[in-house]
Design brief:
The structure holds two protein chains of two kinds.
Chain A: E1 2-6, H1 17-28, E2 31-38, H2 42-50, E3 54-61, H3 70-81, E4 86-90, H4 93-105, E5 111-114, E6 116-119, E7 122-127, E8 132-138, E9 143-147, E10 163-166, E11 176-183, E12 196-200, H5 210-220, E13 223-226, H6 228-232, E14 253-257, H7 263-266, E15 274-279, E16 292-295, H8 298-308
Parallel strand pairs in A: 1-2, 1-4, 2-3, 3-10, 4-9, 5-9, 12-13, 12-14, 14-15, 15-16
Antiparallel strand pairs in A: 6-7, 7-8
Helix pairs in contact in A: 3-4, 5-8
Chain B: E1 2-6, E2 9-11, E3 33-35, H1 37-51, E4 57-64, H2 68-77, E5 82-87, H3 94-108, E6 112-116, H4 127-135, E7 138-149, E8 152-159, E9 162-169, E10 172-176, H5 188-194, E11 199-203, E12 215-221, E13 230-232, H6 235-244
Parallel strand pairs in B: 1-4, 1-6, 4-5, 5-11, 6-10, 7-10
Antiparallel strand pairs in B: 2-3, 7-8, 8-9
Helix pairs in contact in B: 2-5, 3-4
The chains are: A alpha/beta, B alpha/beta.
Bound molecules: flavin-adenine dinucleotide (FAD) and adenosine monophosphate (AMP).
The site of adenosine monophosphate has 23 residues of chain B, from α1, β4, α3, β6 and α4.
Chain lengths: ~300, ~250
């Protein structure tokens, strides 16, 4: 068996989720190769070659892959897939955009967002916002899978010495063109890989009030997240959303502030090691999953927390 | 331009889902069902395009059992023109649904298909991308804004790092995210009117599509429950517990 892992990167840097996806590939077992498709992405291919346990890196370096447009990358994956038993991508917005397109080109039923590997053809995945776990067995000859990063511990970024091989480009499909990106800039850790996350909900009342959470975050080295209600209200950008239809996080510590604990929010954070809830409503459902609950007005509790952290 | 909107009937988002004792799936009897919330956003977008004069007709398609017709009626009450019901008693996989939708798109000669980004039952997030591949069309996924400009759709996509703007060529597939719009509530007169709108019924076989499953569900289980913890009296106690008991800060 050999497994192709699609690298997550921005042409300069290999993203951490790739390391979790390689871990899922190891759980399946077999030779693990990484595909780096991008433009001017040689440095990423070098980083991928160092990932522990990877035996080959395929580097498709061509202008049409610069912005990861699905119409251009999916045909490349479909072409390369014939040499593999499994093709894995991270269940990021990028993986979710591209891999189903490649799967349909191959006439394969993709398995989305796996959280466990039972065997080479059997996988566990959450459904219904994580209210149920389905164990599914695939009869497709090639398995296309997206991987939930938080369910697989990252392999080491260093230690490997894979050969880098150039892969032929498949051309521009001419269907779409990248215009611009507005990426949220932050010096804090990335939400999905941070060890501590502090999230705010509708109870925060405004975007300005998120400054209170940021101060605590900076003391703890934490990332800042949010509920859908806080994003919908425009307090913070969309990439802060934690939940069923946002990001899935599983830090050592998750602090939910002014968040009620709707099932869709819990879907994105209930695998955190420790959960703290700060909410003024003692009956808020978030307390049912919280290891430590503080019934308090957040406008008192959050500044007090910051002060207590010294 | 004709706009096609595939909609799925799912367990209502507010219902606490329960796994069946025999682990064969989740309990569906006597459970409140509704249109998938992302599909509502898709219908709303298409109806707005009709109101703006950019869409000539809005056609809804649902693949499912007889009750899918109720969901089609709900969408017709929001302002869509007619419905197509592809009948099946099986919960089909995204690839099979995409193949059926391809056949309907070709039959209807639609110029744009607007889907939800994700059905909240299977949480697959695949169908739109697969349909796009099968048709050889462009795809604008997870969109929070869209604008028609000649034979291009200018879309803003919600991505992990923030937002991304992409121009995609028509004919196109769009999958919608939560922030695209706020779906309207159907008014009583529109609900009455919707009862008279046509729904065309057909089977997978009528469309000549093989819908055989590729995945076998071996079991469906409840995830390990999290035990509720303790309430702390104040911030000092909280910080003490985090430092000395949990040892996470
Ligand atoms: C299809 C679909 C997908 C969804 N996806 C997601 C998702 O990915 N992520 C997500 O988060 N949600 C999602 N939702 C929304 C979800 O159902 C809830 O509506 C949302 O999570 C609520 O956000 P909230 O807890 O911030 O707001 P609310 O439910 O309004 O809760 C606010 C909380 O703040 C508390 N509060 C208010 N003021 C204070 C104060 N001064 N001090 C302390 N506490 C205070 C209140 O007691 C309350 O508990 C989705 C919904 C649907 C239908
Ligand atoms: N059975 C179905 N009938 C009609 N549309 C569907 C069906 N299943 C999925 N879709 C469409 O595909 C979108 C994404 O679903 P999924 O890929 O299952 O997460 C949904 O929001 C619908 O627009």
């Amino acid at each position: 068996m050999s497994i192709l892992v699609i690298a997550e990167h921005d042409n300069a840097e290999l993203k951490g989720s790739t390391l979790n996806t390689v871990a899922a590939a190891n759980a399946i077992g077999g030779d693990v190769h990484i595909l780096v498709a991008g433009a001017g992405c040689g440095a990423v291919a070098e980083q991928a070659a160092k990932v522990a346990g990877v035996s080959k890196v395929l580097n498709a370096d061509s202008a049409e892959y610069e912005n990861q447009l699905a119409e251009n990358v999916a045909p490349l994956i479909a072409k390369l897939a014939s040499g593999y038993s499994h093709v894995l991508a991270s269940a990021t917005t990028n993986g979710k955009n591209i891999l189903p397109r490649a799967a349909a080109l191959l006439d394969v039923q993709q398995i989305s967002d796996i959280a466990g590997v039972e065997s080479a053809d059997t996988f566990v995945r959450p459904i219904y916002a994580g209210n149920a776990l389905a164990t599914v067995q695939s009869s497709d000859s090639i398995k296309l899978i997206t991987v939930r990063s938080t369910a697989f511990e990252a392999v080491a970024a260093e230690g490997g010495s894979a050969a880098v091989e150039a892969a032929d480009a498949t051309g521009d499909a001419g269907l779409s063109s990248f215009v611009s990106a507005e990426l949220t800039k932050s010096d804090r850790p990335e939400l999905t890989s941070a060890g501590i996350v502090i999230s705010g909900g509708r109870g925060m009342q405004s975007g300005d009030n998120f400054a209170m959470l940021e101060k605590v975050a900076d003391k703890l080295g934490a990332a800042v997240g949010a509920s859908r209600a806080a994003v919908d209200a425009g307090y913070v950008p969309n990439d802060y959303q934690v939940g069923q239809t946002g990001k899935v996080v599983a830090p050592d510590l998750y602090i939910a502030v002014g968040i009620s604990g709707a099932i869709q929010h819990l879907a994105g954070m209930k695998d955190s090691k420790y959960i703290v809830a700060i909410n003024k409503d003692e009956d808020a459902p978030i307390f049912q999953v919280a290891d430590y609950g503080l019934v308090a007005d957040l406008f008192d509790a959050v500044p007090a927390l910051e002060a207590e952290l010294g | 331009m004709k706009v096609l909107v595939p909609i799925k009937r799912v367990i209502d988002a507010n219902v606490q889902v329960r796994v069946k004792a025999d682990q064969s799936g989740v309990e569906l009897t006597n459970v409140k069902m509704a249109m998938n919330p992302f599909c509502e956003i898709a219908v709303e977008q298409a109806v707005r395009m009709k109101e703006a004069g950019t869409a000539t007709e809005v056609v809804l398609v649902s693949v499912g059992n007889q009750s899918a017709q109720e969901t089609l009626r709900a969408g017709l009450a929001m302002g869509a023109d007619r419905g197509v019901h592809v009948q099946t008693d099986d919960d089909l996989e995204p690839l099979a649904v995409a193949k059926l939708l391809k056949a309907v798109v070709e039959k209807e000669e639609a110029g744009l298909v607007v889907l939800g980004k994700q059905a909240i039952d299977g949480d697959n997030n695949q169908t739109g991308q697969m349909l796009s591949a099968l048709l050889g069309w462009s795809q604008g996924t997870f969109i929070s804004e869209m604008e028609l400009a000649g034979d291009t759709v200018k879309v803003t996509r919600e991505v992990d790092g923030g937002l991304q703007k992409v121009d995609i060529k028509m004919p196109a597939i769009l999958t919608v995210d939560l922030r695209l719009n706020e779906p309207r509530f159907a008014s009583l007169p529109n609900i009455m009117k919707a009862k008279k709108k046509p729904i065309d019924a057909m089977s997978a076989a009528d469309l000549g599509v093989d819908v055989a499953p590729r995945l076998k569900v071996l079991k469906v289980e409840e995830p390990a429950a999290r035990a509720a913890g303790v309430k702390v009296a104040n911030v000092a106690e909280l910080v003490d517990k985090l430092k000395n008991e949990a040892k996470v800060i």
